[in-house]
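Lesson 9: reading folded outputs for more than one chain in a single document. The general rule is that every protein is listed as its sequence immediately followed by its structure tokens, and records are never interleaved. Here is the first one.
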Amino acid sequence: MLYKNYFEQLRKAIPLLMEAQNVPALSISVTNKSEVVFSEGFGFTDPSHNFEVNSNTRFSLQSISKTYTAFGFMLTVDKGKVSLDETLKKYIPSFNVRSRDNIDYSNKITFRHLLKHRSGLAHEAPVGNNFSFGTFEEHIKSINDTCLKFKPDEDYSYSNLGIDLIAHALEKIYDMPFEEFMEQYVFAPLDMKLSTYKQEIFLCDIKSAVGHGKKTLVKNPIPMLGAGGMYSCTEDMVKFIDCFLNDGVYKGKKVINENTLKLMYEEYPASENWQYNLGLDVGLFKGKTILNHNGGGYGFYCSQDILPDMGLGAASLTNSVMHPNIQHSIIRNMWSDFITLADEGLCDCDDISDKYKKYIGVYQANYIDDNFKEAIIPRNGELYLGNQKLQYHSTDLFFTQNNDIVEFASDNCVRINYIEYQKVM
């Protein structure tokens, strides 16, 4: 199998990273355009430990929902039902919004503006936002009480409201609830059987992941439906990714025309300066184009990457916001390693040397009123302290790329910059 050693090392590394960062659960799936090459779940859905997480466990996708909502809209463009440069007001006549100069720009805002976050709309609405609840209908209605931050297409400002209005416009175009539209036109053709925008399905799913902040959070419905209301699992998400990697085709069936699909990420050319296209953040990573969206909130951090140049993609989901986005760093480190391997003409990494395997684990330093954990993990045939590769100096002595000193006093004890850590896992 492609990257066999690499994924064996990743399988060992992830639980160690989770323990060091106190992440309750993580799910990850990786596809290479034609098949899923890695798909695993780690940890538990909640503190009861009744349900282990796997790659079919539902998580909240938060803002990754925007990519799927945008895809649903582009399907509608593909069917000739709507145009990107038509105005929102044509489909939602009741839409009105105030402006700083007291000029009515409501009839100037197009769907392209909304998808690119260039409409001038605020990020939050008075009803149904990240700090208060409300129904989707109440949320949409309250947008009329907001004021534009700038004239349409004058600037960029990330906005939940713009994507929620896209979802509401789809309801008007198809005369059905947005949740039903996505199920019928997006999830069914892609065989995404566990994906939904229906809040009640997630809330009633006792095996779905529960979000964590400083404490375990209660499941709540998300009023920003199009912008952050999708629930899915990584096994489903890589089916969506496969559709991108195969130019709109899934399992031999055309879901969307290639040219329409590419409008989502070719609005601006990929560069080192990442730019938001139509529902996707697009940029270059080590010379390779990445189509990305991340999400965070309600106790969840999540990431989705698509690499059309390499025919690869991945989704990774966690049920905690009390960590430094390890789901994102795991994926980006993987791309970095794969690019390095490809540049060297290799399709896999070496195994970890037997003399170093004993050092792999989680180490804890005890402070006066707290403790601190570090993970030493296998990655790409080398040892890493978190994201820093350990460079061998002499017996039991290593340095990181940042010149930190790492010295193993025994198999169960390491000194990092002369602070002593004991192995706990």
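And here is the second record, again sequence then tokens.
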Amino acid sequence: MFIEKLIQKGVHIEVQIMGDHYDNVVHFHDRDCTIQRRHQKVIEIAPAPFLDSSLRERILTDAVKLMEYVGYQNAGTVEFLVEGDRHYFIEVNARLQVEHTVSEEITGIDLVKTQLAVRQGVSLPSLGITQDRIDACLQKDVNTGLRGPVAVQCRITTEDSQRNFQPSTGRIDLYQPSTGPGIRLDGAIGSSGAVITPFYDSLLVKLIAKGHDFHEAIARASRALKETKIHGVTTNIPFILNVLHHPKFLSGTATTRFIDEHNELLFYDPLDMSSQNICKFLAEIIVNGPQTQLVNPDVIPDKAPAIPPPLPSSVEETGVPTGAGSLACPPDDLDLRMMNAASRGASRGYKTLLEELGPEGLAKVIRSEKRLLICDTTLRDGHQSLLATRMRTYDMIKVAPSYAHLLPQLFSMETWGGATFDVAYRFLRESPWRRLELLREAIPNIPFQMLIRGANTVGYTAYPDNVVKKFCDEAVNYGVDIFRIFDSLNYLENLKIGIDAVGAAGGVVEAAMCYTGNVADPTRKPYTLDYYLDLARQLVDAKCHILCIK
């Protein structure tokens, strides 16, 4: 069951919980995780410094009550959104989260060690962990009434906030983190000489600062961030400093939309070139000379830049539109008419059978086939992998005839859908429809397949039925044969919208069931074997041709 509540100015509060095997559940107080970007937390504070005391007690009580009710064991986090004097439950994270460090700092309890002991069957009281002893760790200041100590965690990542948090890769030339009173560093890959590759989590190190109160903790975090030196890759340290110094953050009036509403946080004055970079530059020039042909004619580039030849000025020269400035259009050396003529001589494939027998006939052929049928997803990966902004129509068309001639036995090729539109329009500046049309001409004998998100088609919001129908009509006209239709919640009514639209357009309906859990365990409700069997029957009754488990 999903319950929705509109919260316009929310504050994100979570409670750190630990439960053992003897019905003991304790909390390690609350954390303020309001400062986040795209639901990814950036700065976490424990305890929440600006939370009303009565509201805080209600949140802590509800969190413990919930976990006691379910008999929770091990470490976990109960998360809430707060607006005004009301709190709303979001979810339980049944694990130790990245920000557990601030809870450790304010209570002095090692949560990792504790959860391992609990898993071994040790009770919390025998570890000396009771709610009274945890509460005694936090004291109220007689002057301000605020509780302390306070701990702040800042996630230092290799991202450039000025470029929409674009990941920064390369070699870390200098890694010199700051230390000092109240500073803790949790990290693994940060070191001089380490190489940050594209295949990574952008989190480099967590900097945790503890102080007597909120303002002392922020001051220590600010000092440590300013003294941290990381050269060779770009980090988000200037962005974090902008957040820590912002009046809204310091006054406790920030909401979960704080970063989205304050674009100025992303920008900062570029720092002067460091002495290390100057020395590196001078050494390179002294030893190897200027590495540019403008100054040093002896410099020979390793290879010529991979830029396609100038675009033709008219349609007649290549048989395709020029694309008005897009580098993705075929250059002069690509003769599409010759290529397509060659493809027309390709062997018969399942596309041929589909044209002769129709979707129902193709489904019968599939059911009678004893061999494993293969769908090639290479060209779809060209839309959604590291090649996403590099795999152009020009590149795809170059290899397309090889598919037609060398792999006619493929059942299908997933060439479209998913991220195609976003990548084609925003990055490559080309038409995904034209891409589909050219691929269809070059590969006439293999069915094309695409992913469609039920009523969402290839977007992330529900569209009217007539839009879904028209989209499917056009997709079939441009060359899509098989539509893999899914809904993340297996909601049959959303699936039926896509099923009906594809069926009416004359496409092959491949209805997908999103699978989770262990169907062999009848206690894991609601996603039992009977649930999936019943869903499969309903999809068959909805006139799908192929069943898919996603």
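What the second record shows: The CA atoms of residues 348 and 445 lie 6 Å apart.
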